[in-house]
Structure formats: C-alpha cells, structure tokens
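User: Sequence in, structure out. Go.
Assistant: Echoing your sequence, followed by the structure tokens.
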Amino acid sequence: MEGLDKALLASEIIMERKAVDPVLFEVTGLTSITDYFLIASGNSSRQVQAIGRHLQRKMREKGCRTYGIEGEQEGQWILMDYGDLVVHIFYQPVREFYDLEGLWSEAPRIGLVKKDGKKSR
C-alpha cells in the first residue's frame, strides 16, 4: 500500500474512535524519517489508548505492519511507526504542550474529510 493511501486509511480508522482534530502532514523532503505524519488527540488517556489499539488492529487486518509503538501503556502520547507513515495520538493537553503542528508548520497539510462530510482543520 502506498504511503498516502496508508495515511488516509489510518485517518479514517482513527475517526471511527472519535479522534479529535486529526491533521495529516506530508513531510517528504523535510525529513528522512517518514513521508507522512498523522496527528490526532483523544479527550482522555483511555480514549487515546482505545484509538491506538483500534488503529493497530484495523491496520494489521489491512496488511499494514507496525515497526514500533511507543507510549501505549501511559496513554499520554502514542507514537506508531508504519514506515512511510508515523501516527501521533495525544491526550489533548500533551498535544498542546508539544505543538507538533507548529514544529512542522512548513509541511503541506493534506485535507481530511470526516464521516459527516466536513473537512478537518
């Protein structure tokens, strides 16, 4: 599966668990780590963990393997490495503190459409 397709699939999956404010960045050419960053939040550490578990299970069903997962136990910031996609799922106050959107402000955002038809920020 191509990187963008994987990123869009992951964004759909996290929205199934009501992820808050998902944002997808294309970081190709800005870093050698990955091609896409997907950043989203949960309103509690329990929701963050639920989003992470759901994403891992559904991506595995689609044949996408994780290369590593960090922070799953704590539920404050889960990082999931899918090679050409890195997913960051934050507890909302932690997301605000680290401000990855500000750090990667020069990276182009890819518009995501929520199930209700509205575009995410």
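User: And one key feature?
Assistant: The chain has one domain: 3-104.
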